Amino acid sequence: MATLGNPQSTIAVLQKYNFNFQKKFGQNFLIDTRVLEKIIGAANIGKEDFVLEIGPGIGTMTQYLCEHAREVVAVEIDKNLIPILEDTLSTYENVQVIHQDILKMDISCLVQEKNRGEPIKVVANLPYYITTPIIMGLFESHVPIESITIMVQKEVADRMQVGPGTKDYGALSLAVQYYAKPEIVANVPPNCFIPRPKVGSAVIRLTKHQQAPVQVAQERQMFALIRASFNQRRKTLVNGLNNAPDISYSKEEIVQALEEMGLQANVRGETLTLEQFAQLSNLLVNK
After folding, report:
1. Topology of the domain covering 7-208
2. Which residue in 69, 77, 99, 275 is a FRET match for 25, CA 20 to 30 A apart?
3. pLDDT tens string 197-219
């Protein structure tokens, strides 16, 4: 079977199966071998590794993963791609394709079964609309993960790694940085895909922290505070929290906690660091 990392092979496979791109799945297939090699390099895949691939498409990246890893499980939501994957991956013994929605899978169970519960490496080329739910789902469920190396829209990659006070800084930046160290490893222009997306993409590697960078009494509450403070960017942090239905503290309690932290009552959420959100959360829990 020809390797798929180029336009000719990809087009040949798509024509052979009369494949139609599904807008709802946000499908864009990679057609650049240099980018594929960069992803494998960034993910640091070796012969000992078990890799979970999310959204294998027609198997372009999967072929590369199979060459480098001990074992690969590829989870694909589009049933029309399953026969194609069976064809393009037919020469590999070390891969299993699962037709399933990754958000509905018990990944911990898979890790237990395939990797004795040891941390796994995740690789994915994700459509824009589903990036955040998938990444947060992996982190929040505390699945044992060493790293997640993903292709995402450039602007989402930027958002994951910026700090306070920038326009891209938000709940996603804080959530990702709480769980992992984000690093953009490659920028990928639209012409590296079929069909061509309208915007640039980037490969970002999220290396899971051994230990969270901040100590927080109630993780869930800290994230509720973070979400509420970014939901209404124009408002002050106090008003944002006060208007949030799932935050039960009074305006006075919030102002008092901010004063204890040496912050003004009119401070905005986007100026607070992860440490400050953790501190605020811990102070409010103790009230």
Report:
1. Rossmann fold (3.40.50)
2. 69
3. 888 999 999 999 999 999 999 99
Element (H, E) at 95: strand 95-99
Count helices and strands in the chain by DSSP H and E runs:
12, 9
- Return the CATH number of 219-285, one of 1.10.10.10, 1.10.8.100, 3.30.1540.20, 2.40.340.10: 1.10.8.100
Q: Which of 49, 22, 279, 26 is nearest to 133 (CA)?
A: 26
Give the predicted TM-score (pTM) of the model: 0.90
Q: Which of 54, 58, 56 lies closest to 16 in space, CA to CA?
A: 58
pLDDT tens, 90-138? 999 999 999 999 999 999 999 999 999 999 999 998 877 788 899 989 9
Please give the backbone phi and psi of residue 144, each rounded to the nearest 5 degrees, phi first. Answer: -65, 110
